[in-house]
């Protein structure tokens, strides 16, 4: 936000006081975003693309009577909590780092107060490129069902029991072995005979599993139960169990 790479229109808030709009909530600026008097306030940042969110920085104008600070990420059309904590206050920039980072393009810093008051703050978002080959909150995945696979997004992970919560047509608790990362494979991963997923070009919406027979520049031929079918190369994913990303 400090760099100016995020345009003003991508910074929104639950409310604004005159002269202190959401766009003033950039860390390093000479002003602040200020909410109206309300019990819960948030500043929302829409990033240019998805990133692995590792922390946020918050600078409050003064000390406020705050109950908790929550970090929320948008997954599909829902906002999920991926971190909350009692707010520190040092008078400087407070760095809030979630125990488990999350993949997101839209992020909310939500401040829950002990009473309806106005708050003023500046914020920054810290993150990095999305890691390849591992699953974390916000990862795009395919979930195995009896009739095939369904696209979804990871809401939460439970590494100790190898389970995930996934948003697809609903919310599911599924074993890690039944979740395939939605990640385009490199060319060397697509050798003939590799177990893959693809979208059958003759059955729109159907995601199937099979062995790769031939990889072309546009289409791939896949065999399932001795029957061959075609999928766009862009829709092919390698079937393999992915590890959870390290925190």
From TrEMBL:
Domain (F5/8 type C): residue spans on this chain: 1-128
Domain of life of the organism encoding this protein: Eukaryota
Gene Ontology molecular function: any one: transmembrane receptor protein tyrosine kinase activity
EC numbers on record: 2.7.10.1
Disordered: annotated segments: 1-24
Keyword tags: Transferase
Designated name of the protein: DNA damage responsive protein
């Amino acid at each position: 936000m400090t760099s100016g790479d995020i345009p003003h229109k991508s910074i929104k808030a639950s409310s604004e006081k005159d002269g202190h709009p959401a766009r003033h909530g950039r860390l390093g600026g000479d002003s602040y975003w200020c909410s109206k008097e309300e019990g819960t306030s948030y500043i929302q940042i829409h990033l240019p693309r998805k990133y692995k969110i590792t922390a946020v920085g918050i600078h409050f104008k003064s000390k406020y009577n705050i109950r908790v600070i929550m970090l929320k990420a948008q997954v599909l059309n829902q906002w999920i909590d991926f971190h909350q904590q009692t707010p520190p206050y040092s008078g400087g920039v407070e760095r809030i780092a979630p125990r488990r980072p999350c993949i997101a393009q839209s992020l909310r810093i939500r401040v829950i107060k002990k009473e309806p008051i106005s708050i003023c703050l500046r914020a920054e978002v810290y993150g990095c490129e999305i890691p390849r080959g591992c699953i974390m909150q916000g990862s795009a995945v395919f979930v195995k069902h009896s009739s095939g696979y369904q696209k979804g997004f990871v809401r939460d992970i439970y590494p100790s029991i190898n389970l995930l919560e996934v948003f697809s047509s609903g919310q599911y608790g599924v074993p890690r072995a039944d979740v395939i990362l939605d990640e385009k494979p490199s060319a060397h991963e697509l050798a003939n005979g590799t177990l893959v997923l693809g979208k059958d070009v003759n059955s729109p919406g159907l995601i199937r599993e099979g062995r790769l027979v031939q990889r072309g520049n546009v289409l791939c031929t896949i065999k399932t139960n001795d029957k061959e079918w075609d999928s766009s190369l862009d829709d092919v994913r390698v079937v393999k169990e992915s590890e959870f990303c390290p925190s």
